[in-house]
Amino acid sequence: MNKNALEYAIRYGFIVLLAGLALFFSLYASGFASPRSAVFIFQSVAITGILALGVTCTLVVGGFDLSIGSVATSSLMLSAYSMVVLEQSAFVAVALCLVMGAVVGLINGFLIVKMRVPDLLATLGMMFLLIGLQRIPTQGNSVATGMSLADGTVAEGTFSAAFLWLGRHRFDLFLDRLLPVPVVLFLVIAGLIWLFLGFTRHGRLMYAIGSNERAASLVGTNVQRYKVVAYMISGVLASIGGILLAARLGRGDIASGNNLLLDSVAAALIGFAVLGAARPNAFGTAAGALFVGILLQGLTMMNAPYYMQDFVKGAVLVAALVFTFYLSSRRGGRRNA
Amino acid sequence: MVGGKVAKITCKISGLEKSFGRNHVLRGIDLTLHEGEVTALMGANGAGKSTLVKVLCGYHHADAGEIELAGAPFAPMDASDAIAKGVVTVHQSIDDGVIPDLDVATNLTLDRLTEPGANLFVNDRSLRRRAEEVAASMGLAMDVRARVADLDVADRQMIAIARAMARSPKLLILDEPTSSLSASEAERLFALIDRLRADGVAILYISHRMSDLRRVADRIVSMRDGAISGIFEGEELDYVGAVNAMLGHQMTEVDIEPVSGGAPILEARDLRLFEGSPPISFTAREGEVIAFTGLLGSGTTELAEILFGLSAAAGGELTLDGRAYRPASAAQAVAQGVFMSPKDRGSNAVIADFDIANNMTLPFLRAFSTFSFLSESGQRRAARDMIARIGVKCESDRDGIDTLSGGNQQKVMIGRWLLKASRVLLLDEPFQGVDIGARRDIGHYIRETSAGRTTLVFVAEIDEALEIADRIIVLNEAAIASEHLNKNIDLNRLVADVSGRVREPHGSGTDAVCGPVTAAQSKAG
């Protein structure tokens, strides 16, 4: 029975905690329990969550992608640059960013699979490279209409309305202008990744690679291809995150997106603990992102100072990791006994 | 030993017993090891030799029995205590013994750095001087500043041994030391062993390679099922007897009526497993089960890998159903209907995170999905069906694979490749870590389903081959030594072929004199 209690705690503990937290804030933080507040939480985690779903794919194949934050900021700068300086349409800007994300993922995969650079190091290198690269075309400045360029002219282009729609439009749902586009995209992408990882043979093979790469290759799986694909998914999702950020901000701000990497990695790792999965999974990642969002929103509404945010996130992450690795290993040990 | 010299006893083991749970691994070992003598220890997987070594080097404590070392009782508390008392072990995996990123000097003197009272600061010059002394005393000529990672395998092996020798041990245990050495590298190791023997060190040498044993062994001890099953010494070592004692003939009762098979499916013509190894040719026919057997390092694993596209042959041709067959990867082999259940299931086959159904259906997920979406019910139906047919003992197909016993895990791993029809089924050590009941089930099911494909089984143990095959092909040093139909087999001949005596019918022991003096002349061909 003790065993069952432990099993129950591992499986539902996190969800119970999430519900308890929501209940607590509903009771003690006035205005927390409202549709607008809920949407605000979703909006605050949408971009982080999309990036986290990408990292989840690389975690599934036993890898890691540290370059997602810099891919997102590069995508932010690239979309701004292509519209403001190159005066391209929204469609071109989005297409450029997606291609950039896919190419970065391809290069990451190539470095890891063919050059045999360890995943953390390869993507760390790529992170540095992109942080530097995104500053070169604008000499380190942010991109906005009216900025002066190197040749002395002034940038005439503007963010097109269609592009800004991606970040700012809100769909009606029961209430007028309730659901922002990034939230809808986050939910759609979470659903797609959940289906892909959990219910397709490709997802199943990716989990097999993450668990025992050699065994997976000996049943005839093209391990290298799946790994490259995982990094490409991660790159593309990170570039989508960057597009949404640019569309929300309306300028190519060089300083934004600093926290994206840590927040999204944290969400993916917290996701290990959800439903006792003890492995990366899309549902857990989305729940992990929401958990952090609810906690921060609640604390903010209870007047906790903003500088406590990172501390709270870190504490949640450490607790979730202990939950996953310690409790689950005890469970495994008992099961074998 | 040779020359009638009465050698002093270095180590005397009497009545040693060790159990793990109900598993009685050592059942009363009596063994004496003499100064300046190389004792070769042979035993099949699970015979208990690694447990014996682990007791000697302090990893396990014996349940009963006594060990004496140089006349004093020896009961090491742990590994470092065993080393301090003079029993030093060089383990099979060389890279466990050296630190590749450091230089030779540091590697040779590493133990000194961990000694209590060692200086806080490392004096590189005195370190190198000391290392050079150690190297010189061992007859090693290498730059002590070289990084170990840049050295070849033999040099690394030498360093591991040299560091062990810096402790001036009384007993040196070498566990499969030549398993990753080439012939010339091995020769350098043997020269070193000769020096140590001359210095009066007792050496326990664990190996299956006949050529090694011919070169260095003064005495052969065979183990089987946790007991010593034979000791062979004297002027002429009886290798055939030793192999026989190691393998034994405790056959399970399996009655095989060998079939000769139908149309040829897989043909090998002048296939060479290694650069410079002799060509081998065989034809595998529809419906027959062929066992390839041979000692460790005889080429069975390499042959399986070549057939499954994991490595390329050094020469020769393969045909599958009459067409050229040259798989470049496991995926290509599987696509052409050549399936393999690899050895060492833990590292090569089992997906520990998956349940039985997902482990079983892994190679054929495409067949269980529509537009890439998996049909879980289809997977579970197929798995339940196979579980019933091959007799996996479990609660349901949702059980985690790691909740199963070794034999049941192996049934899942083999059942995996029987879900779909194959042209060639390769089974590399299918009975590894499998109890006798599961072994019988697996063997029975493989034979029952053998129609419509050809089955090649790679096993080191002869009785396993006898239990499953229609035909047995013996490999020795990457060549086909002989071929037997599994009917009234002359076991002595089979064992002789396995141990590599077939090409020297009159040489009963002329090359077996392995004393230190004549060692140089007795290199196996």
Automatic annotation (TrEMBL), chain A:
<feature type="transmembrane region" description="Helical">
    <location>
        <begin position="12"/>
        <end position="33"/>
    </location>
</feature>
<dbReference type="InterPro" id="IPR001851">
    <property type="entry name" value="ABC_transp_permease"/>
</dbReference>
<keyword id="KW-1133">Transmembrane helix</keyword>
<keyword id="KW-1003">Cell membrane</keyword>
<feature type="transmembrane region" description="Helical">
    <location>
        <begin position="120"/>
        <end position="137"/>
    </location>
</feature>
<keyword id="KW-0813">Transport</keyword>
<protein>
    <submittedName>
        <fullName>ABC transporter permease</fullName>
    </submittedName>
</protein>
<dbReference type="Pfam" id="PF02653">
    <property type="entry name" value="BPD_transp_2"/>
</dbReference>
<keyword id="KW-0472">Membrane</keyword>
<feature type="transmembrane region" description="Helical">
    <location>
        <begin position="178"/>
        <end position="197"/>
    </location>
</feature>
<feature type="transmembrane region" description="Helical">
    <location>
        <begin position="228"/>
        <end position="247"/>
    </location>
</feature>
<feature type="transmembrane region" description="Helical">
    <location>
        <begin position="311"/>
        <end position="328"/>
    </location>
</feature>
<feature type="transmembrane region" description="Helical">
    <location>
        <begin position="39"/>
        <end position="61"/>
    </location>
</feature>
<keyword id="KW-0812">Transmembrane</keyword>
<keyword id="KW-0997">Cell inner membrane</keyword>
<feature type="transmembrane region" description="Helical">
    <location>
        <begin position="90"/>
        <end position="113"/>
    </location>
</feature>
<feature type="transmembrane region" description="Helical">
    <location>
        <begin position="282"/>
        <end position="299"/>
    </location>
</feature>
<feature type="transmembrane region" description="Helical">
    <location>
        <begin position="259"/>
        <end position="276"/>
    </location>
</feature>
<feature type="transmembrane region" description="Helical">
    <location>
        <begin position="66"/>
        <end position="84"/>
    </location>
</feature>
Automatic annotation (TrEMBL), chain B:
<dbReference type="InterPro" id="IPR050107">
    <property type="entry name" value="ABC_carbohydrate_import_ATPase"/>
</dbReference>
<dbReference type="InterPro" id="IPR027417">
    <property type="entry name" value="P-loop_NTPase"/>
</dbReference>
<dbReference type="Pfam" id="PF00005">
    <property type="entry name" value="ABC_tran"/>
</dbReference>
<keyword id="KW-0813">Transport</keyword>
<keyword id="KW-0067">ATP-binding</keyword>
<feature type="domain" description="ABC transporter">
    <location>
        <begin position="11"/>
        <end position="250"/>
    </location>
</feature>
<protein>
    <submittedName>
        <fullName>Sugar ABC transporter ATP-binding protein</fullName>
    </submittedName>
</protein>
<keyword id="KW-0547">Nucleotide-binding</keyword>
<comment type="similarity">
    <text>Belongs to the ABC transporter superfamily.</text>
</comment>
<keyword id="KW-0677">Repeat</keyword>
<dbReference type="InterPro" id="IPR003593">
    <property type="entry name" value="AAA+_ATPase"/>
</dbReference>
<keyword id="KW-0762">Sugar transport</keyword>
<dbReference type="InterPro" id="IPR003439">
    <property type="entry name" value="ABC_transporter-like_ATP-bd"/>
</dbReference>
<dbReference type="GO" id="GO:0005524">
    <property type="term" value="F:ATP binding"/>
</dbReference>
<feature type="domain" description="ABC transporter">
    <location>
        <begin position="254"/>
        <end position="502"/>
    </location>
</feature>
<dbReference type="InterPro" id="IPR017871">
    <property type="entry name" value="ABC_transporter-like_CS"/>
</dbReference>
